[in-house]
Amino acid sequence: MSRPVIRRATSAAVLAAARTPAELLSRLYSNRGLDGAEEPSPGLSALHPASALRGIDEAVDLLVHHIRGGGHLLIVSDYDADGATGGALAVRGLRSLGATQVSYLIPSRFAFGYGLSPAVVDAAAPRRPDLLITVDNGIASLTGVARAAELGIPVLVTDHHLPGERLPDAAAIVNPNQPGCAFPSKHLAGVGVVFYLLVAARARLREQGWFGAGRAEPNLADLLDLVALGTVADVVTLDRNNRILVEQGLRRIRAGRCSPGVRALLTIGGRDSSRATATDLAFVAAPRLNAAGRIEDMSVGVECLLTDDPQVAADLAARLDALNRRRREIEGEMKDAAESSLAGLCLDGAVLPPGLCLFGEDWHQGVSGIVAARIRERYHRPVIAFANGGDGFLRGSARSIEGVHVRDLIALVDRQDPGLIERFGGHAMAAGLSIRPEALSRFREAFAEAVRTVVGDRPPQPEIASDGALPQRLMNLETAETLRVAGPWGKGFPEPRFDGTFDVLSARLVGERHLKLRLAGPAAEDGPIEAIGFNLGEQISEAGGAVRLAYRLDVNDYRGNRSAQLILEHLEPAA
């Protein structure tokens, strides 16, 4: 396991000059590439236009034709939070545009696997859809789209995943990452693609005089809570366009103008929706929503997002919370098993390969991606966790490190050994694939070799990026409150992180795995500072005397008492 190094921003020293939280924030924005005149999250008018999306006109033609004709629109979405929010957005949005027949189908990851497969099309056919609309999938569904064509069902693909060498022969495709698409932001989540399609369809319907005479034109911005949740949950880069979508969604959540389901997910997780942040969406709402697709059936999550009844939403959120607790239990068991298998590989001083493939005969395929992420974080190398799919194949969930494009690595293995991989797809940082059980050993060696071509025998030492030392005068609740709502923070626009040396007054474990510290205040007149390190409990032996910490400054709200608290991301004895 590599100990990370703390790397300060080149402009870290300028933080020392900040006298107020506002001045500090201005310097933090500068560290993230914003100049003083640029707004971190401007209004909706600053979004890139839908017209820049390749295929949007054909998609709108198709969609408007079926809306006006009363056709049955069937949404087929992915079983993660991006797919669930995108599916709910499509249903709500299309109904608000005047579509009279809208339904959805979320294939079970256990029965069908990912994407619009021929089996999914056959399951959808008895519903007699006039148009299939994929959400967060479909760009790699060549055989599924072909099967739909055989049955006379046109397919409109909305997706954001990277395409393969061939595109499906769909009636229309909207995907910012398809060849020839000039849309400036390549980081739209699946839910973001759906939002753009709805906006473009509304504009066309408006031109055609569809609204009026008893049919109100909807304000699609009212659905941005779903866009914000799905965008944050899918951990896409928060470029300027995505920051606008997320920030505008958070504004509506805080103002109480969100779906009862989003509010219920935050409430069941102990968060006040009137103070919601992107972090709350990422670590409270999203895991509970994802738990449905991982453990049971994502339709539970979609129904939570679709209902307008607060009590129904609360009941469904409670069910999702229970599923998430079960998910955590399974994750802990699988992670312990994975750690044990890696310990065996390290006997007699052996070095772990640069890319890891793990497999457990009884592992839960819905949780394998989280376990891959946990092992990736600990050992700082690409990881694929395989589980038995129950259909004669092993299904792997891959997670990678910065600078290593895991989907491209899997594609390289596929080119070098055709037939070894049954199917695959994904992003730079996450991907999925299926192989036959007898191919595991060969794939493990091929994947490690593919990683070796990129990083060598040992992955690079992990780094923790820090904005610098937080001035003592700003280590307070006012600063914490300012930073909390100043984002939205996320991938590509990271939440401010600081580092510094502190004296530990006391250290204890909470919840078995979390490290709770009391630190001497930055000045003699200050009281102790509370700090918590989630999943850092194993470092309690190092938490004595003087320590160097990398941390975020946040608000601890305990029974209505709000105080500044450090969220630890790294701890090491002070030099």
Automatic annotation (TrEMBL):
Residues 467-570 form the RecJ OB domain. GO terms for biological process: DNA recombination; DNA repair. Pfam families: DHH, DHHA1, RecJ_OB. Residues 74-231 form the DDH domain. It comes from the Bacteria. The keyword Membrane does not apply. InterPro entries: DDH_dom (IPR001667), DHH_sf (IPR038763), DHHA1_dom (IPR003156), RecJ (IPR004610), RecJ_OB (IPR041122), SSDNA_exonuclease_RecJ (IPR051673). Residues 313-340 form a coiled coil. One of its GO terms (molecular function) is nucleic acid binding. The keyword Coiled coil applies. Gene3D superfamilies: 3.10.310.30, 3.90.1640.30. Residues 358-452 form the DHHA1 domain. Keywords: Coiled coil, Exonuclease, Hydrolase, Nuclease. Belongs to the RecJ family. This is Single-stranded-DNA-specific exonuclease RecJ. It comes from Thiocapsa roseopersicina.
